[in-house]
Amino acid sequence: MKALAERSRVNHFYDVLSVPRRLNMPPELFKTCYAERNPSTLYMKGVQFFFTFNLQEEGLAFMKLAADEGYERAVYTYAITSKIFWGDEEYFARFTRESIVRIEKLVRSLKWAWGLSHSDEFLAKRDEFISTIVPSFYSCQCVPVMERDWALWYIENSKGDKMCNRCFRIKELGLFFREFEPMSVIMDTREW
Predict the structure, then answer these.
(1) How distant is the alpha carbon of residue 190 from its chain centre?
(2) Residue 56 and residue 60: Cα distance in Å, rounded?
(3) Can you say how many angstroms the Cα of residue 187 is from the centroid of all Cα atoms in its chain?
């Protein structure tokens, strides 16, 4: 098995985020995977650079590299981040509802940050979203509102599945603001 792992380019295809955190992967494996342009490590570096170190240009570039490799978590995070920070919907528009629901569960299930807070800019974008966009979600008449939630706690339960595309995207952005955690404490990816 070790001989197989030492073969060139094998680590390019390994999803390091599929390994439970408690298994404590050796830092050398992350570095080796990154050296082979492994999409999951490019994604990790991009998220950490963008959301933790506030190196937005570099972070977004790493996320885009991973997204262009087809790494689903990266495609989703890149699409949502581009929409939130710059209003760019190019990647976001590529998703079907079904694929968004599936991928966002993957992204939201990744809890490696242990409650660290987001950057001030992210929190400001979230507050702006809640005060300016969320009201349009509730005022849209596409389907009846079952429950109002101004703080994003239950936004996914506020309307049924038959909501319009605009409301669906607002809901997805709300879920991202509520659930996304930057991978801050796994390790410092600047050392790769």
Answers:
(1) 19
(2) 6
(3) 18
Rounded Cα gap, residues 106 and 73, in angstroms: 7
Distance, in Å, from the CA atom of 81 to the CA atom of 90, rounded to the nearest integer, reads 11
- Cα–Cα distance, 13 to 38 (Å, whole number): 6
Helices (H), 140-186: 165-179
| Contact between residue 23 and residue 47 where contact means Cβ atoms under 8 Å apart | no
Residue 171: is it exposed, middle or buried by C-beta count within 10 angstroms (0-12/13-18/19+)?
buried
| Whole-prediction pTM | 0.83
* Alpha carbons 188 and 2: distance in angstroms, whole number: 26
Q: What is the pLDDT of residues 41-89, one digit of tens each?
A: 999 999 989 988 889 999 999 999 999 999 989 999 999 999 999 999 8
Residues 176/85, Cβ–Cβ less than 8 Å: no
With residue 157 as reference, give the H or E element that holds it: none
Residues making up the chain, counted from first to last: 192
